[in-house]
Design a protein that fits this description.
The chain is about 35% helix and about 15% strand. It is an alpha/beta fold. The chain has a single domain, classed as Thiamin diphosphate (ThDP)-binding fold, Pyr/PP domains (Rossmann fold, 3-Layer(aba) Sandwich), CATH 3.40.50.970. Helix 6 links the parallel strand 5 and strand 6. The protein is globular and about 50 Å long.
Length: about 240
């Protein structure tokens, strides 16, 4: 008897992600939500440069490739031209909170009726492990070899806390994929974010704390501990806005 099977929207495709990476879990959660809500035929994803650059290889729905950081702007254009479509962005921390900071903040402030999935692994994953906006104080990266904070880099940007001050935002929640309980909660949050768009409520963002064993220089098991023990105290899980 089968206890698990691939949800239909996911293609039969070998992963390009590193062993222990959390992106595969996040992909599955987004895919399951889309299929459970019955919105696959009218869903359009947007994927920027970064680890999520090959999103279209995995999802059997329309996916538009965007310039680095520009997914919220592209998603805004799609949604305004075709308001009956369900439009989501899938972005990493370097993309959403550095190169695309302006697009993220202004789309949120305008209350664009889109869904943003924000994967936070506290590092630039695809380009070599450089410091990201979400890199934590003391965290070693290829560009902060003595730990962030010693050379005037400042503290990490906390996206949910930042966006919670904006009047156009409908829903913000920070989740994780480092424990089974976290995975279940992340799926609930992602489903709520998509339902908000279906209901026309406005801008929703779900942040997902995720593992990056390769650039953290840790084993997959150690990376899970890193999320639970190091990231969660800096980036507390929970709902930051729900209107």
């Amino acid at each position: 008897m089968a206890v698990f099977k691939r949800t239909p929207i996911l293609k039969d495709q070998l992963t390009h992600y590193c062993p222990g990476c959390g992106h595969g879990i996040a992909h599955r959660l987004v895919a399951e939500v889309i299929d459970e809500l019955g919105i696959r035929e009218r869903t359009i994803g947007t994927a920027p440069v970064g680890c999520a650059v090959l999103l279209y290889n995995y999802f059997n729905c329309d996916v538009i490739e965007c310039a680095h950081g520009r997914s919220p702007a592209v998603a805004t254009g799609i949604k305004r031209v075709q308001p009956d479509k369900i439009v989501f962005t899938y972005q990493g921390d370097g993309d959403l909170a550095a190169i695309g900071t302006a697009e993220t903040i202004h789309a949120a402030n305008r209350g664009e009726n889109i869904t943003v999935i924000f994967v936070n692994n506290a590092i630039y994953g695809m380009t070599g492990g450089q410091m990201a906006p979400t890199t934590m104080l003391g965290q070693v990266t290829t560009t902060t070899q003595h730990g962030r904070g010693g050379q005037g880099e400042g503290p990490p940007i906390k996206v949910c806390e930042l966006l919670s001050t904006l009047g156009g935002v409908c829903y913000l929640e920070r989740t994780a994929v480092s424990t089974p309980k976290d995975v279940m909660n992340a799926k609930r949050a992602i489903k709520k974010a998509f339902q908000n768009q279906i209901d026309g409520k406005g801008f929703s963002l779900v942040e997902v704390l995720s593992m990056c064993p390769t650039d953290w220089k840790l084993s997959p098991a150690q990376s899970v501990d890193f999320v639970n023990e190091k990231m969660k105290p800096v980036f507390p899980l929970g709902v930051y806005k729900d209107q």
